[in-house]
């Protein structure tokens, strides 16, 4: 079965950290870029960042310096390390892949998302 499955979400206090995983099955994740997105209540979905097949990374300004995207092609998994989390980071986080190995084009294949709640 071809799918992306996110995991690692949960409840964390402000200033805390979480690491999200994006596990691919049924296809070779190494051939694709991995994008991370989030959807917060009452807001439009926004891009968090992306990592290309060659491991070039891009980040939205809102997470630059706090979040780190990585990948383990041998394990067919991508990661989103989130540090210094703030309440405004509360959202459902999704990973998605385009056809391309580059961070561009249509991210047409999505996981189901994992909830992150930052609250004291």
Question: Roughly how many Å apart are the termini?
Answer: 39 Å
Mean pLDDT: 97
Please tell me how large the radius of gyration is.
Answer: 13 Å
Task: Supply the number of helical segments.
Answer: 0
Give the assembly state of these chains. Answer: single chain
Task: Write a short abstract of this structure.
This protein is mainly beta and 120 residues long.
Notes on the structure:
The structure is a single chain. This protein is an all-beta fold. It has strands at 3-7, 10-12, 18-25, 34-39, 46-51, 57-59, 67-72, 77-82, 91-98, 107-110, 114-118. Strands 2, 4, 5, 6, 9, 10 and 11 form a 7-stranded mixed β-sheet that branches. A 4-stranded antiparallel β-sheet has the order 1-3-8-7, with no helix packed on it. The model has no long low-confidence stretch (mean pLDDT 97).
Question: What attributes does this structure have?
Answer:
single chain; 120 residues; seven-stranded mixed beta sheet; four-stranded antiparallel beta sheet; 0% helix; 50% strand
Which secondary structure elements does this structure contain, and how are they paired or packed?
Layout: E1 3-7, E2 10-12, E3 18-25, E4 34-39, E5 46-51, E6 57-59, E7 67-72, E8 77-82, E9 91-98, E10 107-110, E11 114-118
Parallel strand pairs: 2-11
Antiparallel strand pairs: 1-3, 3-8, 4-5, 4-9, 5-6, 7-8, 9-10, 9-11
């Amino acid at each position: 079965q071809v799918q992306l499955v996110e995991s690692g979400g949960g409840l964390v206090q402000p200033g805390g950290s979480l690491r999200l995983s994006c596990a691919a099955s049924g296809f070779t994740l190494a051939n694709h870029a991995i994008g991370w997105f989030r959807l917060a209540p009452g807001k439009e979905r926004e891009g968090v960042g992306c990592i290309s097949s060659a491991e070039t990374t891009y980040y939205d300004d809102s997470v630059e310096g706090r979040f780190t995207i990585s990948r383990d092609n041998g394990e067919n998994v991508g990661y989103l390390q989130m540090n210094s989390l703030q309440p405004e980071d509360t959202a459902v986080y999704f990973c998605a892949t385009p056809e391309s190995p580059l961070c561009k084009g249509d991210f047409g294949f999505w996981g189901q998302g994992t909830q992150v709640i930052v609250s004291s």
